[in-house]
Backbone:
């Protein structure tokens, strides 16, 4: 098994230390405070002027994001909205007990959007709902934190980008790695030429949950659940718990499996190296179900995707149902350059230099950093700051769209069994396969209508 030798920042030469000191991670690495709120409320607004937020989709990630909002002490939670009353009751109790707040409990998000006192909404629903709710919120004059992937289809992503612009809203897409000091540092290193020409970004994502859940029979809708509303614009189907809370992500009507679940986070880092905001021009996809472990899902358990870019290549490698990967990690990214490779995940990174035979030394400095933290809180703080300043967030819809499209195209490729697709991002069309174009825009189940912007 490959073992990465732990290096010590303190052993680094002074020039490297200075470089790193200037960057975000160093603040934590060298021992200064990692708490960021000094930036929050830099706009000329009284600290007492709190932002009223409402959460739509409360069970898991949405609630986590709400708690990060509440922990800043800069917001009031005025409403919780969910189509499952059991979730609403449980989460409202926690908000009451931990935060001493009494949000209104709402089953239909449109009632949330009608409330004039709501400044911002957090969207924590499954992916098939993101577009309708986000566009409705923009039209109602709310700012939006929408979880990733920004939407479940390319067409919906396009509509959301337009809506944000047309209604001039502040939108944060939940790709929180954009506020992770580890990745900010890595981008500084790469853009500053520290690893030489970037040649490849290799990404791996191996998780057991990617296989789906145990087989389950259709059954009556549980008490307290408005299942028709949960389905919303997605096709009508009998209730099955394997397609419901949490595990919906393995079924095309609501999500895109590990390809989009982790893909958007990790591919986004590859795009960030060169600030790429477009969909991929070409995509080569291998997708199969090679695991003998049986579970309920439609998405693929084994995928390899190649995204050629102008002067480098992004490779995405997914093996659901396994948790071993390169460098003994379940997921990660290696950024391969002429002078060094950077290996990273959300908590650590290593710069592994190439050896210069002529000079008898490394081509750049070795670095190790192993004390990173999750970045949801920083991502939320960036959102709140931008609500006040009206500046662009760290992950605006254009960034969310680019990442989501990079996940949706390989999934389309896999579903129609066409391993090579060419995409024209200006025309929003596949140019070498008519069938693929049928997957760009979803057909909404009545009475729901795909928003027109
Ligand atoms: N940023 C991250 O790291 C991260 C991590 C996990 C999940 N996510 C994203 O968060 C979103 C939610 O995922 P999850 O794991 O929390 O799902 P979940 O199934 O656990 O929770 C979704 C909740 O939304 C509710 N809901 C569904 N339709 C609704 C509607 N129309 N109105 C109101 N409530 C509705 C459900 O009843 C449920 O309570 C997804 O988009 C997912 O990709 C992001």
Residues:
């Amino acid at each position: 098994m490959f073992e990465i030798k732990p290096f010590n920042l303190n052993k680094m030469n002074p020039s490297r230390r200075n470089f790193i000191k200037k960057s975000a991670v160093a603040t934590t690495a060298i021992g200064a405070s990692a708490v960021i709120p000094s930036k929050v409320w830099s706009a000329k607004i009284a600290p007492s002027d709190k932002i009223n937020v409402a959460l739509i989709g409360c069970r898991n990630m949405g609630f986590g994001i709400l708690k990060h909002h509440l922990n800043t002490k800069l917001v009031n939670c005025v409403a919780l909205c969910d189509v499952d009353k059991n979730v609403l009751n449980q989460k409202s109790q926690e908000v009451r007990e931990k935060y001493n707040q009494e949000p209104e409990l709402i089953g239909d998000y449109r009632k949330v959007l009608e409330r004039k006192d709501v400044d911002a909404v957090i969207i924590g629903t499954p992916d098939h709902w993101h577009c309708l709710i986000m566009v409705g919120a923009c039209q109602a004059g709310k700012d939006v934190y929408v979880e990733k992937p920004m939407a479940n289809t390319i067409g919906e992503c396009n509509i959301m980008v337009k809506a944000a612009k047309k209604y001039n809203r502040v939108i944060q897409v939940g790709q929180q790695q954009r506020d992770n000091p580890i990745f900010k540092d890595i981008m500084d290193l790469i853009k500053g030429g520290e690893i030489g020409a970037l040649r490849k970004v290799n990404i791996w994502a191996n998780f057991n949950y990617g296989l789906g859940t145990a087989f389950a029979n259709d059954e009556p809708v549980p008490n307290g659940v408005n299942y028709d509303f949960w389905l919303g614009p997605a096709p009508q189907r009998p209730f099955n718990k394997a397609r419901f809370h949490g595990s919906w992500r393995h079924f095309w009507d609501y999500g895109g499996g590990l390809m989009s679940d982790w893909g958007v986070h990790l591919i986004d880092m590859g795009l960030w190296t060169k600030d790429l905001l477009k969909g991929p021009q070409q995509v080569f996809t291998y997708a199969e179900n090679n695991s003998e472990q049986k579970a309920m899902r439609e998405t693929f358990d084994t995928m390899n995707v190649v995204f050629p870019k102008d002067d480098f290549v992004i490779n995405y490698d997914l093996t659901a149902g396994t948790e071993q990967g390169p460098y003994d990690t379940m997921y990660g990214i290696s950024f391969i350059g002429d002078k060094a490779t950077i290996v990273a995940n959300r908590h650590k990174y290593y710069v592994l230099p190439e050896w210069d035979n002529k000079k008898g030394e490394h081509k750049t400095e070795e670095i190790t950093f192993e004390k990173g933290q999750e970045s949801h809180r920083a991502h939320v703080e960036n959102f709140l700051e931008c609500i006040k300043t009206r500046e662009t967030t760290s992950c605006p819809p254009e960034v969310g769209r680019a990442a989501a499209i990079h996940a949706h195209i390989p999934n389309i490729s896999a579903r129609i069994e066409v391993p090579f697709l060419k995409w024209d991002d200006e025309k929003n069309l596949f140019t070498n396969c008519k069938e693929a174009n049928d997957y760009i825009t979803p057909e909404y189940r009545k009475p729901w209508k795909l928003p027109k912007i």
Residues 56-62, 81-84, 87, 109, 124-127, 129, 147-148, 174, 176, 229-230, 232, 245-246, 248, 261 surround nicotinamide-adenine-dinucleotide (CB under 6 Å).
